[in-house]
């Protein structure tokens, strides 16, 4: 019974940890996305599985290959992985505080004493051999070390979530640059095709001018149109080169390493008619930057306990065992053994408010991290809603421009036929040609915008990291 009465308080102390216990904050969101006015999003289990690899929705094999290479080669992802390892090493260091530290020392010396001393020993040569073990152990009675371990564990999880967030950013940047590349290639093809048509019209105009059927003004206008289209080609070529360089950097490769691979003709990325998505509450659980902010709040809360632990006494023991002898063969004799087991209690008496200031600082820091978490949640909702609204606008614009291209193509074909047959005038052909090129170029830009907003949506949803290494 006496042992029980002694051990029970010690057990209670061991089970307690100074400072507040952490409870995850509640974050509420809307039931649905208010920006989805036209019902372009689908939610549910199938949608949740699809968006874990959202880039596959574009059905582009080259994009899939680039993603596979980027997640293993990207330097930012590698650096994020190293920061996770760094946090794990920090946790191992903090956990060592649970256990005693033991060190060993040994030595030998040979000395000669003066024969002129007034007190013995009066000279001579002596040997001295020593060996021993020292240990130190601070007992975590009030749980200060446990709070340090709690904070370090949360920091590991935070770094893991930051790595996931780096992957989400990487996938978004990769998809955006690839979409822009394919769009620039498509717009370059449109410009070159229209340039060829303009050159044919210029040849036809010169021929008709020689026959007296058109004026020099018509020839000058045709030449101007050719030069105008020629001037846009270098811009598209530069855009293509820049996107190739950006993609190579994301893959951790040299700038020109992807030129041959990406020079192959490929269509622009086209998102599905209806986009799979997540409901707002799932975004809170899955988005890595929100999860990282929550883990940072947990670490900050544990730090309060670390600071409060300085109020309480610290208990430590520092046992040591030594063996000393003048002859090596006597080191194993029981008479050479010496030991000591000191126990220490250290408690603050007066510190001019230092500990109180550290506790206040830790509490303030935790409060600011709670606000940072709440802001991350609101930012996530805003980014998703904005991406949905922008996608719907781009979708409507893209549909209208597709109709405009079809109508302009019909108008140009008829105007060209009339001009070839000497019935129509050149101005009508030129006007319709310019209108078609402008519509095709605008439609390509709109298609890119639609794709970019799709990518922005999945980046805002925090998707893509779940199935990657």
Polypeptide structure, described:
By secondary structure, this protein is an alpha+beta fold. It has one domain: Outer membrane efflux proteins (OEP). The protein has helices at 2-15, 45-50, 61-73, 75-95, 144-210, 216-250, 259-262, 280-286, 288-308, 354-420, 426-461, and strands spanning 41-42, 101-113, 124-139, 275-276, 314-317, 320-325, 337-340, 343-346. Strands 2, 3, 5, 6, 7 and 8 form a six-stranded antiparallel β-sheet that branches. The longest helix is centred in the middle third of the chain and has 67 residues, at 144-210. It is elongated and about 135 Å long. The two termini are 56 Å apart.
Mean pLDDT score: 86
Number of continuous helical runs? 11
The CATH fourth-level homologous superfamily: Outer membrane efflux proteins (OEP)
Number of strands: 8
- In CATH, the topology is named Outer membrane efflux proteins (OEP)
Radius of gyration: 38 Å
Query: How many domain regions?
Result: 1
> In this structure, how is the largest beta sheet organized?
6 strands, antiparallel
Portion in helices? 55-70%
**First and last CA, distance:** 56 Å
How would you classify the helix and strand content by structural class?
alpha+beta
**Approximate strand percentage:** 5-15%
> Mind telling me which CATH architecture this is?
Up-down Bundle
The arrangement of helices and strands along the chain is HEHHHEEHHHEHHEEEEHH
Q: Which blocks of ≥5 consecutive residues have pLDDT under 50?
A: 1-14
- What coarse outline follows from CA principal-axis ratios? elongated
Task: Kindly provide the name of the CATH class.
Answer: Mainly Alpha
